[in-house]
Amino acid sequence: MDLLAFDTSTEVMSIAVQRTHADQVQLWQRTAEGGAQSSKHMIPEILRLMLQAELSFDQLDAVVFGAGPGSFTGLRTSCSVAQGLAFGADLCVLPIPTLWAVAEEARWQLGATQTFAVTALLDARMGEIYAGSYTFDSGVWACIKGCSLIRPQDVIGNDGALAGNVFALYGSYWPQQQIFALPTAAALLRLAPALLKAGAAVPADQALPIYIRDKVAQTMQERNDAKPQVYDSK
Known about the structure:
Layout: E1 3-7, E2 12-21, E3 24-33, H1 38-53, E4 62-68, H2 72-89, E5 93-97, H3 98-110, E6 115-125, E7 128-137, E8 140-150, E9 161-164, H4 167-170, E10 178-180, H5 185-197, H6 220-226
Parallel strand pairs: 1-4, 4-5, 6-9, 9-10
Antiparallel strand pairs: 1-2, 2-3, 6-7, 7-8
């Protein structure tokens, strides 16, 4: 398959283009500043990778993007770009949960090819974490528990590893193996063929981000309430 994939749900923007030529899969990829900053670099980097791969957008089989959860601005950027490119080239769009991409990236880092169990964790800020649990068995992924928003102390692993970008902040909470992993575009490309075969792609106008949290910031009163209270002893 010839595919374009990107993720801007975290602090790192990841883009990759996959081209299959003479039964050989070739990969071009690029990382840059993500989140709210991704809109500055995203389109130029996509065009650069497509040029390197010698592909036009109408040659692609699908546009793949990390659908969330994650940075609100980053998710909206990815979804908008995926829709725009798909509309322009009459392509389908494949949204993939970012936590699933984290799980796949961790599996790839470890070289696990048979069985692998992992709980994927991404920083949701405001003292909370996005979490999802997955298992990999003989080439097939299964979702054990889908995306949820929880506190670090409520994370319960599924007798496997933990993977994500939260360990510098909350790693001391958990005894399990911890793997730093982000939802890379390359991980999205590895997941894409099976999902496309299963019919998970959607028309461009039906591609939507996955929002777990509606509230993205604390009020002034909530921030003040969170500050340590200082009392005058007089």
